[in-house]
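User: Structure please.
Assistant: Input sequence and predicted structure:
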Amino acid sequence: MNISNKLMLIVLLTTFEISITVFSAFEIAKGAKFHQLNFLHLKYINQLTKSVRKIASDAPVDIQTIESDILAIKQQPIDCLNEINHLNRIIMKVIKTDQAITICEDDIKIADSALLLVQQYKNDRLNKDDFLIGMNAALDGFNQHSEVFEEPIRKTVSFILMTLIPLVLIISLFNIIFISYLSRTISSSIRNLTKLLLSKPEDNINLDDELDKKTSGELKALVIAARHRIKSEILNIENSLELKAIVNSQTASLQQANDELAQFAYRASHDLKSPLSGAKSLAQFVIQDIKAGDTEEASNNARIIYQQMEKLETLVVDILLLAKAEIGNEEKDFIDFEQIFIDMKERLTWLMKDNPCTLNTSVNLSTPIRSEKARFAQIIENLISNGLKYYDKDNASPFVNCDIHDELQKLIIIVTDNGIGIPKKHQSEVFDMFKRFHVETSSGSGLGMALVKKHVEYLNGEISLQSSNKGTTFKIIIPMDTLK
């Protein structure tokens, strides 16, 4: 199983655990709600009892107060029935506590009968004595229902507690063990690759054999892409008179590539491990919160775990794109840049929703462009999304402009914004992996600009930037002979 599948499995397991935990928290809280409703039921019965006793002592009949008390009593069983869902009904039927539902329904019927007596008394169709007899009968029914209601509800809540809490604990324990296992396998794969890349010739290690044995999936694709490029460059200059000097240069380049891959493996391992460790710790807190009955804190921690898994998923997707950037695996076709802009705006709806930036696009080409659509879509989306993310909040008219045209047998892509810019000391690092210069604003993986550069280099193009505190401009130049 490759890294992306393992991380996807972790996300699914965590989502399932969160769902069960939140469901359990709400079901447990529902038991307290039932007890509260019965308490209010008793409270309003007591109020109605006082009003009826006043009638018996020949006091004037406060018919409005009596009607209000009956309506208040009726509301409790209504709320109770609304709280009981289909699953609750099945559970109560299985454990034979569904008489609580019957009690609530009977309570509503008694309340409706009492309200009918009130209307008859108001309309002088019922004398005081008969009205008093009817009210006392209703009170007897209400009191009897309050007494017998507690027992089935107590048994139902106890059953839910004894069933759901162990289930949550078992699922949480399984997730912790299984996620820890997956985390160790991911870390082990990255450590093996790091050790392999750092090996020296005198270690007598066959790199190809060891790569097949110890590396697979995205990491192997990344290594193969890097080695493929280096081998291609070496073969192209193999018969040159300067072969010896070039071989020495390529050897140094290979060492640099290995060092970069080792650094990538280390950074990827760190960025993958951090959210996993955080999720593992928070899972423990969720268990403790559930035991303590703090469902609100459990829900908050569960929400944070879900956010951590979303970050992991974003990082895995970016690693996959970076690994595939140098492998031409898509058929060439004519590029419709206007459609690319339409699709991009749909994907960036979440970013543009509360973003005051104006996005302007223009395409002016004298000849059709034929290439791999996915590469241009990723180049344009990464550059424009960066401009939208890092707009200047103090600027009254923030904008991001994207202009695509051709001149002198070259395709030119220019993306300009008037945002906060890139600090001068960091401009040389813009296209490095895992680089983020505005930590308080950035939410990505730090691989976007590295991916843009790899796509441009694959197309034999060049990318440059100019930036200040008044904005940033990226310019890409690609030879037209590679786009036919």
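Strands lie at 333-334, 358-364, 370-371, 399-407, 410-417, 462-468, 471-479.
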